[in-house]
Amino acid sequence: MTKTSTGRPLALVTGASSGIGYELANQFAHHGYDLVIAAEDDGIIQAARELQADGGRVQPIQADLSTAHGVERLYAAATGDGRPLDAVAINAGVGVGGDFARDADLDAQLRVVDLNVRSTVHLAKRVSADMANRGTGRILITSSIAATAPGPFEAVYAASKAFGLSFAEALRNELKDSGVTVTALMPGPTDTNFFERAGIQDTKLGQAKKDDPAQVAKEGFEALMAGKDKVVAGSGKNAMQAAAAHVLPDTAKAEMHRKQSEPGSGGS
After folding, report:
1. Which of 173, 170, 160, 55 is nearest to 114 (CA)?
2. Would you call 157 a catalytic residue per the annotation?
3. By C-alpha distance, which of 148, 258, 156 is closest to 198?
């Protein structure tokens, strides 16, 4: 870690106004980091106030990371004072449920791609280049247990998380001799506003028991600090699903997911 004039290393966390992102930022704050936190909503301002309770500096940036301008503005703000980023948690993401061909709004689906895929690549390019040049750094990319299977009625979201997992593993390999580590965080269903925003509250998945975001973030932070390649966080059920994904055919996995994510399935 790089100690600066503040005596504290610096971490950047995106999607940090609530849920897993907020709890990841909380982990960094508890472990002595100053923070730059980002989200598109104004809840990021209140999150910054709360996170300052640990005595570190917390800089909130309200930006739409589904746009290139938003990513560049965040990167400029996070690095503008010359302090190096010791750790970056690329966590911002969104989901959209529904029948892709017949019901789903195209603009909403493309925003999933822009935020979950394009912005991840964009921000990772900026921060990984800086870290590789310095020969040190840690990057956490939030994927999902959804990355392990096709996701009917969450088709674009699941594919975006599969991209995130593959991207994280590949980038990790490229940087293996650089002093920079890359870790993928793979939570299962977690008690956040994701399901409401995705419009899938009426599914079995939406109504099922959820994991605690604080526990998910703790496991993600610990894996990042240990330099692990990935961690399936949350309940044991998530680990079982990940293990089953290695042996089941994609057609079977898709059918299993369909039963959990089909609109209206939560009432059956």
Report:
1. 160
2. yes
3. 156
pTM of the model: 0.94
Helix, strand or coil, per DSSP, at residue 101: coil
Q: Return the CATH number of 10-267, one of 3.30.830.10, 2.30.110.10, 3.40.50.300, 3.40.50.720.
A: 3.40.50.720
83 close to 1: Cβ distance less than 8 angstroms: no
Q: Where are the domains of the chain?
A: 10-267
pLDDT of the chain, 268 residues: tens digit per residue: 554 445 899 999 999 999 999 999 999 999 999 999 999 999 999 999 999 988 999 999 999 999 999 999 999 999 999 999 999 999 999 999 999 999 989 999 999 999 999 999 999 999 999 999 999 999 999 999 999 999 999 999 999 999 999 999 999 999 999 999 999 999 999 989 888 888 888 999 889 899 999 999 999 999 999 999 999 998 898 999 889 888 999 999 999 999 999 999 987 5
Q: Is 256 exposed, middle or buried (0-12, 13-18, 19+ CB in 10 A)?
A: middle
- AA letter at 163: F
CB 213 within 8 A of CB 19: yes
Residues recorded for the chain? 268
Query: With 0-12 CB in 10 A as exposed, 13-18 as middle and 19+ as buried, what is 199?
Result: middle
Residue type, 260: Q
Q: Contact at 8 Å (CB) between 160 and 112?
A: yes
Active-site position among 22, 33, 75, 157: 157
